[in-house]
Amino acid sequence: MANSKKLVFAILKFLEEQKLSGQLDDEAKESLEVAVQCLEQVYKLNITEGEFVMQYSIPQNLLDIFTSQLNQAKPNAASSLNEPTAEQKEEAERLKNKGLQPTVK
C-alpha cells in the first residue's frame, strides 16, 4: 500500500498546488479543500506533517510526470497504427460491397 499512499500523497500535493495557483474561484477552492480532507482521512495522510512528507514525497510533481508520459505516448500512438493485412483489406472490401447491394424483398 506504500505505492498507493505515494500516489495519493502526490494527488494531494497537486490539489494543494491547484488551490494556490490563483486560477480557481473561491467555490472551486473550497471543493478542492473538501477533496483534500476526504483523501487525507481515508488514507490517513497529511501533506503538511514532516513525517508524511519524508515517507511519501516523490521527487517530481504529478503534473510533470503526467506531461512526460503524454509526450512519450504521442510518437508511440502513431507507430501502433498498423497497415491492414491483405486478409483484412479483402474482408473490408467484401463487407463494403455487401452493404452496397440493394436489399431484395
Structure description:
With 105 residues, this protein is an all-alpha fold. The protein has a domain at 1-57: Single alpha-helices involved in coiled-coils or other helix-helix interfaces, CATH 1.20.5.420. It has helices at 2-20, 26-43, 50-56, 62-79, 86-100. The longest helix is centred in the N-terminal third of the chain and has 19 residues, at 2-20. The protein starts with a helix and ends in a 5-residue tail after the last helix. Pfam families: SGTA_dimer.
What's the layout of helices and strands?
Blueprint (H helix, E strand, L loop, with lengths): L1 H19 L5 H18 L6 H7 L5 H18 L6 H15 L5
Helix pairs in contact: 1-2
Give a quick rundown of the structure.
By secondary structure, the protein is mainly alpha-helical. It has 5 helices and no strands.
CATH top-level class of the domain at 1-57: Mainly Alpha
Helical/strand content category: mainly alpha
Mind telling me which CATH architecture of the domain at 1-57 this is? Answer: Up-down Bundle
- Ranges with pLDDT <50 over ≥5 residues? none
Task: Supply the CATH superfamily name of the domain at 1-57.
Answer: Immunoglobulin FC, subunit C
What portion of residues is helical? over 70%
- Continuous helix count: 5
Number of strands: 0
What do we call the CATH topology of the domain at 1-57? Single alpha-helices involved in coiled-coils or other helix-helix interfaces
Ends distance? 64 Å
Oligomer: single chain
Average pLDDT, to the nearest integer?
Answer: 87
Q: Characterize the overall form.
A: elongated
Largest sheet: none
From N to C, what is the helix and strand string? HHHHH
Query: How big is the Rg?
Result: 25 Å
What portion of residues belong to β-strands?
Answer: under 5%
Biased composition (Polar residues): 74-85
Organism: Arion vulgaris
Domain SGTA homodimerisation: 3-67
Protein name: SGTA homodimerisation domain-containing protein
